[in-house]
Hints:
Elements: H1 3-15, H2 18-24, H3 29-43, E1 48-50, E2 55-57, H4 59-81, E3 91-97, H5 99-106, H6 110-115, E4 120-126, H7 133-136, E5 140-143, E6 152-160, E7 162-166, H8 168-174, E8 187-191, E9 197-201, E10 204-208, E11 211-216, H9 219-227, E12 232-236, H10 237-245, E13 250-252, E14 262-269, H11 276-289, H12 294-304
Parallel strand pairs: 3-4, 3-5, 8-11, 8-12
Antiparallel strand pairs: 1-2, 5-14, 6-14, 7-12, 7-13, 9-10
Amino acid sequence: MNIDHLKLFVRIANTNNISVAGRELNVSPAVASAHINKLEENLGVRLIHRTTRKVSLTDEGKLFLPHAEEVLSSIETAQAAVGVGSQTPQGTLRVTAPASFGRLHLVPAMEEFLASYPQLNIDFRFSDSILDLIEGGFDIAIRDAVLKDSNLHARKLADDKRIIVASPDYIKKYGEPKTPQEITEHAAVNLIGLETWEFNTPQGVVSIKPKTRIRMDNGEAVRDAAIGGNGLTLTATWCSYPYLQNGQLVQVLKDYPLTAQCALWAVYPSNRLLAPKVRAFIDFLKERYSGEPYWDKALREAELS
């Protein structure tokens, strides 16, 4: 299978234009079309729908795309491992991350990151579901859950501190719980999968299952529902710190920290040496979140002021 044909196919998938993709790889539209025809002939399936105005991937093309990207990434990594080819991050970096964290903290950082790597593109998939790295053809995943798959490597980026919060209006109307046990007297907004809250107390760990008034699958939506006065909620400081700063949310039960010791991780397949683009992305995030993450620092400074 011709590697140049694979590169062309991946660029067509990103641009939806054979002429543009060909121009990026220094081949004419006619030659680009011929290369795709040859690739399809070798595979025995049609990869691209062609019309007079645009092209799009067939179902087979969509299935083939992550594997083509995986092959190209492996070749780039193999070349880098033996000092062959460019050490400069380039190509397309495929990243999956939690929806809220991606929107709040990855997207705002991309202008700075990509300014250093003009030959690099990023394909994000933001989802609160844990997507399979290998099956999805991802280079890296950002996760805030414990690593369970032994076929993956992980590098810690930052602590993921979680607290209990509510809106001032809710507290004014229903009062503030003084102990974890009093949570059962309150309404709660819960993120799916976090319906039980565990606290460290002088008497040991206490598990509380609050009365869920609203249940959602998105951390920002849960936070916003709490801001709207719908009840107590468990939230990550990276998600809620601006609203704790401006007073739309207040932390409750400060003397009873949650037991969960969570962290944000950069996860990647362990059967692969790190490609330059993957290493660059991880190093950038490590530096950005090193020490006390900026969201926790901002919250601490707000509390001291």
